[in-house]
């Protein structure tokens, strides 16, 4: 596929820049915690939260479908049409975004360790937090083996420049579903 074929709609350069800023985000450090620049609080009150992992994983999460216009919404639970082309596109975007966030965190903070997550619980979500000593990760590999095996959960463990993932290679049927 050529570049002109990839962007038949001729999206504006401003739209492209907005997407680039999502895919390759800026991060901010506040009180030794790391946040997406758009999610960073002015200050952190540790007494309002269970621990640092909760603060980072709560504030550093984004629902992919909330970032873009789409036609996959429903007015009641389950809230999304999961076989809609926009939902499938959001899943594909989320899988690319989680990998980009893991890579950018490794590049920007090589001395830190992170967990970066992708999940399709209802709306594709990307989130991250640092690995804090003595604190339980937001989601552990052991707790989600079935979902990880099925594909709707991906966990990247970023340790300096080394990135390990729970992601398994996609089966051809999954690739066809995501590439529609």
Describe this structure in words.
- The protein has 180 residues and is α+β, with helices and mostly antiparallel strands.
- The protein has one domain.
- 36% of the residues lie in helices and 19% in strands.
- It has 7 helices and 7 strands; from the N terminus they run ααββαβααββαββα.
- The strands form 2 sheets. It has a 5-stranded antiparallel β-sheet with strand order 3-5-4-6-7. Strands 1-2 form a two-stranded antiparallel ribbon.
- The longest helix has 24 residues.
- The radius of gyration is 17 Å and the shape is globular.
- The C terminus is likely disordered.
Quick summary:
With 180 residues, the protein is of the alpha+beta class. It has helices at residues 3-6, 13-23, 52-59, 64-67, 85-108, 145-150, 172-178; strands at residues 27-30, 33-36, 61-63, 113-119, 125-130, 153-159, 162-165.
Strand order of the largest sheet: 3-5-4-6-7
Helix percent band: 25-40%
- Give the H and E element order: HHEEHEHHEEHEEH
Percent of residues in β-strands: 15-25%
Task: Calculate the mean pLDDT score and round it.
Answer: 84
What overall geometry do the principal axes of the alpha carbons give?
globular
Structural class call reads: alpha+beta
Q: C-alpha Rg, in Å?
A: 17 Å
Q: Which blocks of ≥5 consecutive residues have pLDDT under 50?
A: 169-180
What can be said about the biggest beta sheet? 5 strands, antiparallel
* Distance between the ends: 14 Å
Number of strands: 7
